[in-house]
Design brief:
The protein has one domain. Mean pLDDT is 80; it is low at 112-135. The longest helix has 15 residues, at 161-175. Helix content is 10%, strand content 30%. It has helices at 95-98, 139-151, 161-175, and strands at 19-20, 25-33, 39-47, 60-68, 75-81, 106-108, 116-117, 177-178, 194-200, 209-215, 237-238, 242-245, 248-255, 261-268, 287-294, 299-309. The strands form four sheets. The protein has a six-stranded mixed beta sheet, with no helix packed on it. A four-stranded antiparallel beta sheet has the order 1-2-3-4, with no helix packed on it. It has a four-stranded antiparallel beta sheet with strand order 5-9-10-12, with no helix packed on it.
């Protein structure tokens, strides 16, 4: 009746957006600059009703701390509740989708023809490959030696300042990242599992990947130490449990009512594009593609739909928020 303010939550930059984890806690984020194109996104768990009786009770707790490479940031945070997968009143009939071709052809709703064009699956490349050379030295050891030579003046760097910053950040994150808790797909019981889902990237500032991080039951409360008692001093960042590469600019995401399927709007990059400057993302297609991913298998299950066009350039891209009901995607 009196419109009492229950909580004030910090959320910066704005396009983290934030979301509810459960009925009492919500997730927000903020961004910390580390270098010119390297940053760190911190995701926070906030008590939505922050009136407390004791100053010793947490109203906010750090959830995850994730390194961002090549000017990318975490955006459009949402939570999928795996316990809803088999709920009878939410369950959708996806037999047709699951039987669809694994190559995920594109069906263009905006054209006059009904021909489908095949679309190749994009396979993300690892950031740094650990391949031993003929002397038995890993790529990481070679990179470390390269940095030592630069710092001690034995060699001049054969790369730009931006490329060097990214290589340093990759090396640091490899040695200072907490490993995943569990295999994302190995769990038998989804009753209490929730997934934190967000757009991210590794090549440029345009959001071109979907990051997925499992939220464990003990992480779903603001109780306990703010920084987490399980974190060792060398575990500076948290790793992602799964990454889906879209090979294009993601402009919207939405969950099906049963939270099993993730719908993603994107505008594709040219097939063979090479990104040499993270501040210069590739041109994006006018066609808007709608992809559907099964969060139980982490695979694309439904052929991509294409219905709308957009004409903004890649540096002025925008969001088209999705809403998914039992029968429609809006």
């Amino acid at each position: 009746e009196n419109f009492t303010l229950l909580s004030r939550v910090r959320n910066k930059p704005y396009d983290v957006f934030g979301c509810w984890l459960n009925e009492t806690n919500l997730i927000s984020g903020n961004l910390h600059r580390i270098g010119r194109i390297t940053s760190c996104s911190v995701l926070w768990l906030n008590n939505a009703f922050q009136g407390i009786e004791s100053e010793n009770v947490n109203v906010v707790k750090r959830l995850f701390k994730i390194q961002n490479l090549n000017a990318s940031t975490i955006r459009t945070v949402m939570v999928a509740d795996c316990s809803r997968y088999d709920s009878p009143d939410l369950l959708l009939d996806y037999e047709e989708q699951l039987a669809a071709s694994s190559t995920c052809p594109v069906f263009d709703l905006g054209s006059d023809s009904e021909e489908e064009e095949a679309k190749p699956k994009q396979i993300p490349e690892p950031a740094v490959q650990e391949l031993p050379d003929e002397r038995g030295v890993t790529a990481e050891d070679g990179l470390q030696q390269f940095f030592d030579d630069i710092m001690e003046g034995r060699v001049r760097p054969a790369m730009t300042e931006t490329e060097l910053e990214t290589k340093v950040a990759e090396l640091f994150v490899r040695n200072r990242t907490k490993p995943p808790e569990l295999n994302l797909l190995s769990t038998d019981s989804n009753s209490k599992t929730k997934y934190l889902i967000f757009t991210t990237g590794c090549l440029t500032y345009s959001p071109h990947q979907i990051g997925i991080k499992r939220i464990l039951p003990h992480q779903m409360t603001t109780a306990g130490p703010v920084l987490g008692e399980e974190r060792r001093s060398d575990e500076f960042f948290d790793s992602l449990d799964h990454v889906i590469d879209i090979h294009g600019h993601i402009i919207g995401m939405g969950l099906s009512p049963d939270h099993r399927y993730l719908y993603v709007n994107s505008r594709a990059w040219p097939r063979d594009c090479v990104i040499s400057d993270p501040m210069q993302p590739p041109p994006i297609a006018e066609e808007i593609d709608l992809h559907v991913f099964d969060l139980k298998t982490m695979k694309e299950v439904k052929r991509a739909l294409r219905a709308h066009r957009a004409y903004t350039p890649n540096e002025e891209c925008f969001f088209i928020f999705l809403d998914v009901s039992r029968d429609f995607v809006a």
